[in-house]
Specification:
Elements (H helix, E strand, L loop, with lengths): L1 H9 L4 H9 L9 H11 L16 E2 L6 E2 L10 H5 L12 H21 L4
Antiparallel strand pairs: 1-2
Amino acid sequence: MSALVTEWYARGATDSAVRHALTAGLPVPVHSPAAFLHKRLTTKLPPEPEPAPRPPRRILECAECGVPGRPEALPEGVCGGCRDGHTPTRPAGLLPAPVIHARAAEIRAAMSHERRERTPV
């Protein structure tokens, strides 16, 4: 019986919550107190607590060349290549920021043009 109550406390239940679960709506008479307690402690068991959320992963960029990396790989915001004096090349597939901004502006312009051409329904 104590293992069941211990599980209640492990799930965050208080003394008053356990007491309420065991005593609310008692049948008259209680024929088998041990069976009654076991049934109440198992059927009214609170849900397991949610696990603590994991901290978000952070990716930073080198202040000199813009190469992405974990914070611990960029002490003082600079990657190892820039600290050693030679700038590493950007990883394949990454576009420079001005190219991305220009493409986003093109897409926004096309979307607003489409909106103006539509006729109201």
